[in-house]
Amino acid sequence: MDPKAVHERRVFLEFARAAGFTMDHGTVDSREPPEPDIRCRLGGQTVYFELGRLLDHGMQRLRLRLLRGSSVSVGDEDVRLPEREMLRQKRGKTYVLTSALDSATTSRPLARTRLQDA
């Protein structure tokens, strides 16, 4: 498993534990595009999760400057909404969902889906 997949699996398992998901951790499977990042069985159903890192690069640069001992000041214009940008990026993708976990050797698409407004 590549380092990105290992990291995504670890992050997902931490999220699942914090969210109180009851699932068989052995069903957590990292997937390759065009599928979402994680596929697992939850409540007897196959479900998919797409992960995204929420990090405002401007705030990260300010944080690094502060850690290096520089003085920094933060105004309203410095605060961004990385959640909005990540959602916009993820909504622009089309995901292909493959067959259920029971037949992991099959790669035929079950569905193509695009995130929609709630």
Indicate the topology:
Blueprint: H1 3-19, E1 29-30, E2 38-42, E3 45-49, H2 57-67, H3 82-91, E4 94-98, E5 109-114
Antiparallel strand pairs: 1-2, 2-3, 4-5
Gross geometry: elongated
Secondary structure category: alpha+beta
Beta-strand level of the residues, as a percent range?
Answer: 15-25%
Radius of gyration: 18 Å
Number of helices: 3
Distance between the termini: 34 Å
The biggest beta sheet reads:
3 strands, antiparallel
Mean pLDDT: 77
- Which bin fits the share of residues in helices? 25-40%
Order of helices and strands: HEEEHHEE
Q: How would you characterize the overall build of this protein?
A:
- The protein is α+β, with helices and mostly antiparallel strands and 118 residues long.
- It has a 3-stranded antiparallel sheet with strand order 1-2-3, covered by helices on one side.
- It has one domain (3-114).
- It has 3 helices and 5 strands.
